[in-house]
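Students often ask what a holo structure prediction actually looks like on paper. The answer is less mysterious than it sounds. You provide the chain, you provide the ligand, and the output is a string of discrete structure tokens encoding the 3D arrangement of the protein together with adenosine-5-diphosphoribose.
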Amino acid sequence: MKFDEFLLEALRRARRVAVLTGAGISAESGIPTFREAQTGLWAQYDPQELATPQAFRRNPRLVWEWYAWRRQLVTQAEPNPGHLALTALAGFVPQLTLITQNVDGLHQRAGSAGVIELHGNLTRYICFDRRHPVSAWAETDEVPPRCPLCGSRLRPDVVWFGESLPAEALRQAATAARSCDLFLSVGTSALVQPAASLPLEARQQGAMVVEVNPKETLLTPYVSVYVAGRAGEVLPALLRAAWPSAAENGLPG
Ligand code: APR
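The corresponding structure tokens follow.
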């Protein structure tokens, strides 16, 4: 895979790198993305049916079981060379901030630290009424189970449509976008706000914006460099090209 020297030089010179990932980086780990018709998770379900507080109130068991299915997929999945390349990237640049829209925890399992989870994490649970964090509950036939503290139903600790993002995560992500000199958008359709504004804020303050995605997105017209390809192939190749020594250090993929 060939890369523009302009891009490789910018990577080598970058001091503060911000990365935003979406479902696409977990596609090669076998986790379906959201909006791709042939494989997208939504293709099988009506999003309004499953990922909104209203849907949970209407049919808590269905929503709980859909997330149990996704949690199962995630538990069986392994980080892929795309995740591992971003973990390695942290060792090549002075400062790396990894922001994800994914709720699968695969970046953490790949060894990335300080991951900013804009949309939460489906392996964590909170209760619906008071958002108490809950990691264990008494055996029960009731689905979903109930909060040991307040008795309200448990739900995944993820951001549903119409809900606000965790304020601290969003603040950190916005700070990174506004102070980076290189912003890498990987595997996101760039459709969902406020995440989709982050690369544009980076561009606004003069950062180089690079997009890695097999398909062009709404963001593509605004990026400095668009690399068409899959994260699991492009990211390891990009690191090997920018830092040939990386190959000896056993870069993944
Ligand atoms: N490598 C890189 N990108 C890929 C790959 C791959 N192997 N396979 C697919 N893609 C790209 C698709 O081209 C698409 O642009 O990943 C993107 C996935 O887009 P979405 O399914 O819309 O996922 P995402 O952008 O993360 O959605 C954002 O919307 O549904 C909500 O909260 C949910 O966090 C999610 C948010």
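DSSP finds twelve helices and nine strands in the chain.
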